[in-house]
Design a protein that fits this description.
Blueprint (H helix, E strand, L loop, with lengths): L1 H20 L8 E7 L12 E6 L3 E6 L4 E6 L4 E5 L12 E7 L2 E6 L4 E6 L4 E5 L12 E6 L5 E5 L4 E5 L5 E5 L17 E4 L5 E5 L4 E5 L5 E5 L18 E6 L5 E5 L4 E5 L5 E5 L12 E4 L5 E5 L4 E7 L2
Length: 317
Amino acid sequence: MKQSVLPVLITAVLLLTSCAWFPAVKEPPYQLVQTWGERGDESGRFNEPTGVAVSESEVFVSDSRNVRIQVFDFDGNFQRQFGEPGDKTGQLGRPMNLTVANGELYVADYFNDRIQIYSLQGQFRRAIGKPGSGPGEFNAPGGVAVAPNGDLFVADFYNQRVQQLDANGSFIRQWGTTGETGIWASEFNYPTDVAIAPDGTLYVADGYNDRVQVFTPKGEFSHKWGGPLAINIFGSFNGWFATVTGISVGPQGNVFVADFYNDRVQKFKANGEFINAFGIKTERLTHTAIAVAVAADGTVFVADYANHQIQKWRRSE
């Protein structure tokens, strides 16, 4: 009797594991409705875009190698650009992930080790941070999120941490141990981006751990996802990652993650349950999804690093 029950139990465990680690798509597919841009330095062209953010009516793009921010309407029509190479205030090193918050644009200025803030029209407002590993200092910030009260959350890439600062740049707290990598909860392996939900939940793109980590509004670790046990096991299955480089919370609370080496964006519920995946794959080019932003109507904009363009996606109904 016991011998006959054992195979059934093993089968049941395998099925449960399969459902958890190899989930199916749970909604209609997303359709690519438009792309714009190609390689170049003229207005409307890009050289390796690395960040994207949206306001109510415009798309902001980190045009990294051209060292500028470009702005478009939702149909890809060029509106304006700002920024120039340099390390003076208002100048840019390598702009990375972007955030629009409280009527301003926040730029992770990677090479200049700071966050720069501009008006949505492109006027420089202020800068926060400086090079270093101390509180409120950065070593290649990759992404920034802003709470309704103005607090900043910064993915501090080479310092292996996420910092929370007040609106003036004063240190509040951090997650992760400065300069140390790890695979366990609240440890990081080159964090690349952050996002804040309306309720204050913090989502971290834990880049080279190939996972997302989540923290409560009180700063406590909540949960993580990405591959088996979310401990730096990468892959191309649904719900798995191969380096996460961007993260965004959609209008319905779903979480969109740029899965860089898998050339796609993946969509999850707030608890990490996989919902959908979409992206462009070509035989010649890879790295086609480095950053993601979601408009209020659910339209998804993706920075396509390899093709030097922006992708615009909508879900099929």
